[in-house]
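Troubleshooting entry. Yesterday's outputs looked truncated, so today I'm pasting the complete records for two proteins to confirm everything comes through intact. If either block looks cut off, that's the bug. Protein one:
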Amino acid sequence: MARKSPKQICCDAREVPRSCCTVEALVQVDHRGQMVLPKEVRERAGIAAGDKLAVVMWEKAGNVCCIGLVKAGEIGEMVRDRLGPVIREIFE
């Protein structure tokens, strides 16, 4: 995947491998602002009742362009994977 410049803060479809992301379902937001993840999506993602999901948003030019869900338990690992090498480099 190509490296993003500091100014480019949103996902770019040209940089995402085709096997990375797929559209699995369309959901609709109801009048209360709620939506339902289809059962098939929950099962494939291993999401069960009571699981916590982090809402991750990407912005470009001040507008939210992408919204994603990440299992809360995996956030720490993602941060460690991204920041670990940077922190090691700072202290070396």
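Protein two, checking that the full record survives here as well:
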Amino acid sequence: MLDRYSILLLKKERLPENPEVQAECARFEADLQGRSDQEYITKHVALLKEVNAKIWDLESDIRKGKEGALGLEEVGRRALAIRDLNAERVALKNVVAKERGEFEEIKVDHASAAAQP
């Protein structure tokens, strides 16, 4: 949930004209109101948002079909950086899961699993 919310916050900042994003973000914010663990949530959402922002920035031109302008070497460099950031993201999500007694995300035969710290 915190990962999803961090992505919504990025979308809210970067795509402010999207009413669906605004509405979904408002629902999350309403659900989070009055919780006793606000400080915990705020801290972990900020950490996830930072990693997700880096991933977004690396993927942006590729998603827009500009890989030709980037060149294969740059696309490859970005792919490796995205893999490493996804490993960091999974590790952050698993910290929350472990602390909350929830199921951890386990990557099997996935490149980000090999890159995990």
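Both blocks look complete. Sanity check on protein two: The chain has a mean pLDDT of 88.
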